[in-house]
Amino acid sequence: MSQPPSQAPPPSQQNAYAPPPGQPQGYPPAGQPYYPPPSQYYPPTAGYAPPGQPPYAQGSYAPQYVPSGYYQAPPTNYGAPPGPPNANYYAGPSSSYPQQPPVGYQAGYAPPPGAYAPAGYPGQPTTPGVPSMPLAPGGVAPEMSASFEPPTVLYRDTIIHNPKYSGGLAVVGYTKDQIVHDINRINKAAGDEKKLSAILVELGPLKMDVVAQEFPNHNNKNESLAQHVVRKTSGHVEKTLLGLIEGPLRYDVELVRSSIAGLGTNESLLNEAILDHTPTDIALLDYVYRQKFNKSLAHAVSSDLSGNVAKLFKFVTDPNRELLPAPNTSPEELQKLLDNDVDDLYNSGPGRIGTNEEKIYKISTHRTHEHLTNLCTRYKQKHRKPVSEMIRDEFGSSNHDAKALLFIVNGAEISHHAHLANVAPLALRDAESLEDTMKGLGTKNTLLIMRVLRAQWSRGRMEATKQAYYRIYEKSLARRVKGETSGAFEDLLLAMIGPS
């Protein structure tokens, strides 16, 4: 493992997988574990590149995919530190919350400098010698209208093709010859599940889309990549590879559908499928869900639920939900919101007769992750009880709304175990959920596949989860999975988890 960088990132660059508040500043001694967490809203941090590709020249991840005919200028600075943030790094309570992306796709939205947009797009630095798009009066590119969509977007910390973009798929630095070469490798793997799995894992979600698009043109049967996988594999390997081909967004659409199909609701699956999503994630999920099932995400979910929990999910599935605090909120206003939320949580439960469920739902679903983490910390300091315990007292632990609230809070609440207090709550929750699929008699393979798949699409998330798993259970996640699986399925999961 490479050594941590010598310069720590400022508080404004912390994210959901960064250590919780109250931890000492600076990096641990050389050789101790550290996390390379993702940014919640921007491209992966410095030094990361897709498998088989060198890191970008500037040390930052280079967006690989832009529309055909557009030039993608090399990024000059994503605002990322010179290396991955450290697991034990925390620079004290932050007065600068991560900037949220706009709700939906608003006209005039300019992505961060160097993001995925044609040269000349507002906010995109131009490159000498490279033509920029002509700007209309007011400095807005002609394509910038209510219907304009960038070719790639972020979904759950992963760069994906924007399903609303109509310009087709193209790859910078991924030539036609290279695409054909990868397709030939897939065809030559024939019935070797291990070899086929290794090829598909290394592609990543964006290249996977391009290969899947071209695959039918390179076999006599006009066979899709998914059909090829079904013909060449079986069982858990087949199910996992089909998930890889779907990619993070379409896979989540299927998770939501599976959780509400048939009689009853798979509450745990529904919670995992959407509760962590930002409003922008929900807008993307809703768009693809409507395309596939001719029904809005909100309507599909609400029609399967009843009672109080339906109110909670109505908040979650609203793409226009506003997350507070807003960007650039002053330190004074941040503190005021934090104090008010602590008081409102208490006065909605322990501080009154009966429970104001809707108020608790709204605070839990209308706050940024960083704010929720600070809220959980401050609530425990003031009321001598964790928010999770308050929820159990007020809602029990078996009702769906209780499980949903605990899922949210467990991703923000600092562990009461001293040796885990400097590990990001989201990473702890992910590690514990993976262990739940393997403990006891038998392995819950379907859940194991789902949780490994969703973590591996964001390498920062996977690395943070692996480190958290080791801290909790004193063994590597790869070693644990190896003991529970075998054959090509074991090889595939280990490839997705990556080196220990």
From TrEMBL:
Pfam families tied to this protein: Annexin
Pro residues bias (residue ranges): 1-41
InterPro entries according to UniProt: Annexin, Annexin_repeat, Annexin_sf
Record keywords: Annexin, Repeat
Disordered, as annotated region: 1-63, 76-136
Top-level taxon of origin: Eukaryota
PROSITE patterns: ANNEXIN_2
Skewed-composition ranges (Low complexity): 42-59, 76-93
SMART domains noted in UniProt: ANX
Keyword Repeat (UniProt): yes
Family assignment from sequence similarity: Belongs to the annexin family.
The protein's name in its UniProt record: Annexin A4
